[in-house]
Amino acid sequence: MNLTVEAKVENIDPLTNLVNKQLEAMGCSPRVQSQIDIALDELLSNICHYAYGDGTGHVTVGIEEIAEENAVQITIKDYGIPFDPLAHDDPDVSLDIHERNIGGLGIFLVKKTMSDLRYEYRDGCNILTVVKTL
Amino acid sequence: MDVLLKRDGDTIVVSIAGRINTATSPQFERELIPALDGVKKLVLDMTDLLYISSAGLRVILTAQKIMARQGEMILRNLKPEVYEVFEMTGFVDFLTIE
Predict the structure, then answer these.
(1) This prediction's pTM
(2) Which of A28, A55, B11, B83 places its Cα 20 to 30 Å from the Cα of A65?
(3) Best residue of A105, A108, A112, A113 to probe chain B, by most B CBs closer than 10 Å
(4) What is the CATH number of the domain that holds B47?
(5) DSSP A50
(6) Residue A76: beta bridge partners?
(7) Angstrom distance (rounded) from CA A44 to CA B70
């Protein structure tokens, strides 16, 4: 299944609901579903906020089951500024409350909870492939 | 997401239901932060919170900083999925979770 929507924050929830329907059909546990929902929120919000600068553009989310690996593969594509979300250093999660800021925590959560993440820039597209074992 | 506030003197219990994510965290912030004025004890009841993403963590961090100055903040009844997010991000080190 492939879904293309305008890259706007208000489209994240409806998109996530459609992905959840697919995940339920695959027999995905509520825990894994929450982790995937969080990952989608982090990755899609980055695209909505930054991929197109002050302009607008689209984002495509594809979802497919990899039955032989009991996993789901989610592909997120945008056509904006080249940006590898995986290329940044992880935040220091041992800092105390006064030194804490939230920058980078979202992607860090995605890296911790997903089974595999791959980024490529191809044909003017940022393509992020997320694999999660069910 | 639904936020329900119950005030009892200088204690406030805030029950959060649904998802705290990029779309809902501005509403969470608008309802929670102004309500903390003069509060000495804040209880966040997360019984019906399905998950929280980093957008929500920012609001939790703001609330914790305010309450550390004027009293205490306690998080209650977290689902494992919610606890996991606080654990992975190291927030468990400075939050009070019951």
Answers:
(1) 0.93
(2) B83
(3) A105
(4) 3.30.750.24
(5) I
(6) A61, A128
(7) 36
Q: How many domains does chain B have?
A: 1
Tell me the chain A residues in contact with residue B93 when contact means C-beta distances shorter than 8 Å: 94, 96
Cβ of B23 within 8 Å of Cβ of A108? The answer is no
How many C-beta neighbours within 10 Å does residue A133 have?
12
Cα separation, A109 vs A73, in Å, equals: 18
Going by C-alpha positions, the residue among B59, B97, B21 that lies closest to residue A109 is B21
User: Which CATH entry fits the domain spanning A2-133: 3.30.565.10, 3.40.50.12780, 1.10.10.10, 1.10.3720.10?
Assistant: 3.30.565.10
The structure tokens listed for B51 are 């998950």
**Residue among B37, B18, B38 nearest B28 (CA):** B18
Candidate from A30, A37, A96 with C-beta closest to B94 = A96
